[in-house]
Amino acid sequence: MKHPPARSGRGALRRGAAAASVAALLASGTVALAQAQASAAAGCKVDYTTNDWGTGFTASVTVTNLGDPISGGWTLEWDFAGNQQVTSGWNGTFAQSGKHVTVKSPSWAQTLATNATANPGFQGTYSGTNQAPAQFKLNGTVCTGSAGPTDPPTDPPTDPPPGNRVDNPYAGVKAYVNPEWSAKAAAEPGGSAVSNQPTGVWLDRIAAIQGANGSMGLRAHLDEALDQGAGVVQLVVYDLPGRDCSALASNGELGPDDLDKYKTQFIDPIAGILGDAKYAGLRIVTVVEIDSLPNLITNAGGRPTATPDCDTMKANGNYEKGVAYALQKLGALSNVYNYLDVGHHGWIGWDDNFAPTAQLLATVAQASGSKGNVAGFITNTANYGALQEPYYTINDSVNGTSVRQSKWVDWNRYVDELSYAQAFRQELVKDGFDSGIGMLVDTSRNGWGGANRPTGPGPKTSVDAYVDGSRTDRRIHLGNWCNQAGAGLGERPKAAPAAGIDAYVWMKPPGESDGASKEIPNDEGKGFDRMCDPTYTGNPRNNNNMSGALADAPLSGHWFSAQFQELLKNANPPVR
Ligand code: BGC
User: Fold this and answer.
1) 261 pLDDT band (50/70/90 cuts)?
2) Who's near 75: CB < 8 A, 6+ residues apart?
3) In angstroms, rounded to a whole number, what is the distance separating the alpha carbons of residues 60 and 357?
4) Is ligand 1 within 6 A of the CB of residue 444?
5) Which residues form the catalytic set?
6) Signal sequence: where (predicted)?
7) How far is CA 322 from each of CA 59, 266, 432, 539, 557, rounded to the nearest angstrom?
8) How does pLDDT run across 141-178, given as a tens digit for each residue?
9) Residue 481 contacts by C-beta under 8 Å, 6 or more apart in sequence?
């Protein structure tokens, strides 16, 4: 996530290409279809919503099973009214022949309980009017919006209440300070000013559960949390098969097909420890597998930014299956709070990434047994997006030209993480998550203070001059993600700082590298990603800009003293 940045650039570039046509954006219409009746044991309802931009569109299809439970897979069919053509789809396998479209359930989500929903979606092209299909069929039955006159009226689908969890696990309690990170921070000049801050504990390999290379294992951290009298502990659960399919710096130890190993040697032992009655009084926040699901949307499946590794993971379904398994096992523990990763505004903030990502998260959460297994979501993990841009907003324009048309914003809908997190929360609630879900924002390295921080808006001579003069995010390009030069510590960790936000957190421990600046042989599975090399001149994902990375960085996760010192120097709010 670190490193999701790579993805960001990709999103940006695509968006740039489609941009001109997007100008007139998107009325979105919902068509709930209700017609005459089919049979009592089979029934379905379909909500079909599109975002149109004149020649292309994205569609969200929410199908609710109103009949008996479906276990052997489902097939949804419709005929387009016009010349619509599906170009890529998600949460289902799409096939089109003429006007006829068939969507089959993904291998990892074959069941559809009574009143459960599936959320396939797709991107398509059209000309003329983008009229919704007149009729949908689920497993051959026409979706009429009811299961038949003989059935009692059905309530909308609901998830079980989230047990006896509190609404916000951060509220009113002290968060655990990782003594290992704390000691490294305190050993840096001036570091003791922040070394008492809570940071994430990363379970980034099987050996980390017991303690890799002499460091504390999971039990040691939990015992220490009890000793500290902490009320909440923050874990990052990060060892998915084929981990980090779009960047090399955080590739992991498990191969693309190692799902069983992931379940039995990673998730099961973690769940076993967290379930120990001794820890029942601790609230345990688990950030489940950053980067993974958003990568399936932006970097796979026919997108121009697809990578072979992400295509492999999309095809084998092991990200979805792994995350669903983790959510189910961890969600069964009533003191555990699962948070899923929603990337950051510079990655998922474009229209063609935003809704599809939310829908995929909803489908995977549902595949875990219940969306109630998810307490919330995190943005900006290990990224550098500013929390709030004080000197410009997405609604500003210069001589009638929207800032969305500037090179920096490049048609994104957001300029900062707080606005993105709050909007994404709404989208998730629309997709069926509980309205009580809360967001976390990783503010560990998004402060952008120091001498280069603007002190007011830029000149209104051109939209680019305005945005570049106003923005506090001083990256060379929004898609840069590795050890960014000029970054500073951001807001200190804080519970309930803003509407819809459970906490500002330091999930990525400041001072831990995002990736090595050159090839370093290692036994952690980590590759060399040139986005971490300061001499790299970039690729299409960051629009061929310099990487902006600091020199002489160690492997991801390893201590990077020079970076820590720079983060401290450029902190905003300033330290002390
Ligand atoms: C690395 C992990 C590390 C984490 C926190 C990631 O980039 O891949 O190994 O634990 O950062 O620093």
Assistant:
1) very high
2) 102, 103, 104, 105, 138, 139, 140
3) 11
4) no
5) 244, 291, 514
6) 1-34
7) 26, 11, 21, 31, 23
8) 888 887 754 333 344 444 444 457 999 999 999 999 99
9) 1, 2, 3, 4, 5, 6, 8, 247, 382, 383, 384, 514, 531
- The response to whether residue 511 sits with its C-beta less than 6 Å from ligand 1 reads no
Task: For residue 505, list its beta bridge partners.
Answer: 442
Distance between CA atoms of residues 215 and 210, nearest Å? 9
- The pLDDT score that the predictor gives to residue 29 is 29
Q: Label residue 385 by pLDDT band (50, 70, 90).
A: very high
Average model confidence (pLDDT) across the chain: 89
Amino acid at 389: E
Tokens 């309530």 found at: 155
Higher pLDDT, 140 or 309: 309
Give me the pLDDT at residue 163, please.
52
**Ligand 1: which of 178, 199, 238, 380 to mutate, most ligand atoms within 8 Å of CB?**
238
457 alpha-carbon distance from chain centroid: 30
Q: List the domain boundaries for the chain.
A: 34-142, 179-569
Q: In sequence order, what DSSP letters do the residues of 30-42 get, joined into one string?
A: EEE---S---SS-
Q: What is the fold of 179-569?
A: TIM Barrel (3.20.20)
Ligand 1 lined by 204 (C-beta under 6 Å) = yes
Q: What is the mean pLDDT of residues 252-266?
A: 97
pLDDT of res. 499: 97
Q: Which of 556, 559, 563 to mutate to test the pocket of ligand 1 (most atoms within 8 A of CB)?
A: 556
Tokens 């439970």 belong to residue: 69
More confident residue, 1 or 52: 52
Q: Which atom of ligand 1 is nearest to the CA of 250?
A: 8
61 CA to middle of ligand 1, Å? 36
From ligand 1's centre to the CA of 250, what distance in Å?
7
Model confidence band, residue 28 (pLDDT cutoffs 50, 70, 90): very low
* CATH, domain range 34-142: 2.60.40.290
Residues 6+ away with beta carbon under 8 Å from 260? none
Question: What percent of the chain is modeled with pLDDT above 70?
Answer: 90
At 40, the pLDDT band (50, 70, 90 cuts) reads low
Ligand 1 centre to CA of 364 (Å) is 24
If DSSP states are collapsed to H, E and C, what string results for 95-156?
Answer: EEECCEEEEECCCCCCCECCCCEECCEEEEECCCCCCCCCCEEECCEECCCCCCCCCCCCCC
The protein residue with its alpha carbon nearest to ligand 1, atom 2, reads 557
Report the SS3 class of residue 47: strand
258 CA distance to ligand 1 middle (Å): 20
pLDDT at site 148: 53
Q: Average the pLDDT over 350-355 and give the result.
A: 96
Does any ligand 1 atom lie closer than 6 A to the CB of residue 442? no
Residue nearest atom 4 in ligand 1 by C-alpha distance = 557
Identify whether the C-beta of residue 342 lies closer than 8 Å to the C-beta of residue 298: no
Q: Compute the residue count for the chain.
A: 576
